[in-house]
């Protein structure tokens, strides 16, 4: 995306505000009452929240099977669901918390908390394509599962763009009856089936700022019947909640995922030719990938040295998750995929707008190329 005299290639970190959200702010629509108040302004505010709830249920089709709650983002939603479920369950020595080394840091850092609550924890392995082996959950390994076991399932990896088919999560659910939480943060408008949520999966979490709403707001679906305190105290974030509805409505009209994917494939192909044997595209051999993300390793060129070159070239890119920005050292997701520390220190991530077109891709490549020809 062109931002005045700069190019923004960091959509997986934060998506710029949708035009409809900015227009709503400019119109003065944000000056509303407390949605908990019983006066007219409060009732009008509560109405917007109800509209958003109805809209999200209609988009994802889970109203009959799941409840919906709002929070500050998928990190809070994930932690609330996972730790809350453990607090509510009957303790069982066979209970197990399963997660992967490529999950978001908010998940991997939950493992010690789970252990403190009496669960066993186990990290399942990821290969160099960013995929897990479904056989891991078959055969004798199923004996470790109980109804209290928990699996975190990252639908779309925010750093590599590798996609795990939700059908695999459904099969695991059928075979194990484990509680499955899907981190769906990066799915909207980046995979073709992002609205097709399986009603048998226990929970899904989303962050609004990934698709054009205000920051600091998100939502989760969780199966009806789970009895624990999952509601945040205080006044609901009306403006953030309604901005998610506006942003999704706008992008439903603007985004053509097939078009975006073709434009990204062009960019990736040209970048692969450009770096040739001096680097590689992470996850290039994965069976499924999203439509907007390219992560590259440039051999022998540390990201800490490359990022300033792109910044001076007028481009906003990253070396991984925004939640890990400012941290030096190798990318932990790449380490989890089996890359060496040396290669994991040389990663660059380009994440483009979901509205990417071929025309934009042509312009972006020339801009990116202008930096690469100096550093390769």
Indicate how many domains the architecture comprises.
2
Question: Largest sheet at a glance?
Answer: 7 strands, mixed
Task: Report the count of strand segments.
Answer: 13
> Portion of residues in helices?
25-40%
**Largest sheet, order of strands side by side?**
3-9-8-7-6-4-5
Please state the second-level CATH architecture of the largest domain: 3-Layer(aba) Sandwich
- The total count of helices amounts to 12
- What is the mean pLDDT? 89
Summarize the structure.
With 376 residues, the protein is an alpha/beta fold.
What does the model show?
The structure is a single chain. By secondary structure, this protein is an alpha/beta fold. It folds into 2 domains: 2-17 and 256-375, Aspartate Aminotransferase, domain 1, CATH 3.90.1150.10; 19-253, 3-Layer(aba) Sandwich (Aspartate Aminotransferase, domain 2). Helix content is 37%, strand content 15%. It has helices spanning 19-26, 40-60, 74-88, 105-108, 111-116, 166-176, 238-254, 257-275, 303-312, 332-336, 341-344, 358-375, and strands at 2-3, 6-8, 66-71, 96-99, 120-123, 150-154, 179-183, 203-207, 218-223, 279-281, 293-298, 315-316, 347-351. α2 crosses α7 and α8 runs parallel beside α12. It is globular.
């Amino acid at each position: 995306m062109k931002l005045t005299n700069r190019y923004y290639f960091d959509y997986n970190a934060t998506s710029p505000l949708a035009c409809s959200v900015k227009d709503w702010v400019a119109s003065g629509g944000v000056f509303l009452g407390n949605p908990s108040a019983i006066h007219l302004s409060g009732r009008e505010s509560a109405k917007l929240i109800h509209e958003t709830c109805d809209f999200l249920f209609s988009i994802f089709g889970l109203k009959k099977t799941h409840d919906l709650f709002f929070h500050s983002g998928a990190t809070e939603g994930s932690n609330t669901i996972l730790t809350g479920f453990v607090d509510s369950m009957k303790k069982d020595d066979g209970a197990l918390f399963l997660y992967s080394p490529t999950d978001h840091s908010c998940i991997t850092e939950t493992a010690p908390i789970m252990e403190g609550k009496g669960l066993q924890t186990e990290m399942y392995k990821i290969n160099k394509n960013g995929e897990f082996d479904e056989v891991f959950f078959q055969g004798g390994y199923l004996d470790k599962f109980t109804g209290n076991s928990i699996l975190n399932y990252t639908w779309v990896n925010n750093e590599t763009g590798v996609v795990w088919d939700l059908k695999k999560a459904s099969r695991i659910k059928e075979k194990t009856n484990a509680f499955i939480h899907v981190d769906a943060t990066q799915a909207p408008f980046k995979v073709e089936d992002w609205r097709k949520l399986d009603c048998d999966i226990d929970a899904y979490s989303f962050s609004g700022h990934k698709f054009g709403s205000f920051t600091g707001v998100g939502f989760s679906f969780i199966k009806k019947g789970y009895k624990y305190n999952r509601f945040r105290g205080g006044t609901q974030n009306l403006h953030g909640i309604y901005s998610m509805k506006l942003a999704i409505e706008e992008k439903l009209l603007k985004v053509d995922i097939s078009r975006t994917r073709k434009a990204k494939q062009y960019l990736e192909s040209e970048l692969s030719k450009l770096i040739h044997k001096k680097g590689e595209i992470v996850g290039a051999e994965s069976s499924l990938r999203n439509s907007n993300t390219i992560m590259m390793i440039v051999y022998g060129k540390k990201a800490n040295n490359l990022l300033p070159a792109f910044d001076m070239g007028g481009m906003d890119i990253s070396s991984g998750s925004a939640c890990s920005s400012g941290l030096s050292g190798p990318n932990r997701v790449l380490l989890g995929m089996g890359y060496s520390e040396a290669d994991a220190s040389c990663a660059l991530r380009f994440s483009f707008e979901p509205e990417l077109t071929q025309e934009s891709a042509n312009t972006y490549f020339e801009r990116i190329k202008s930096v690469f020809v100096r550093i390769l």
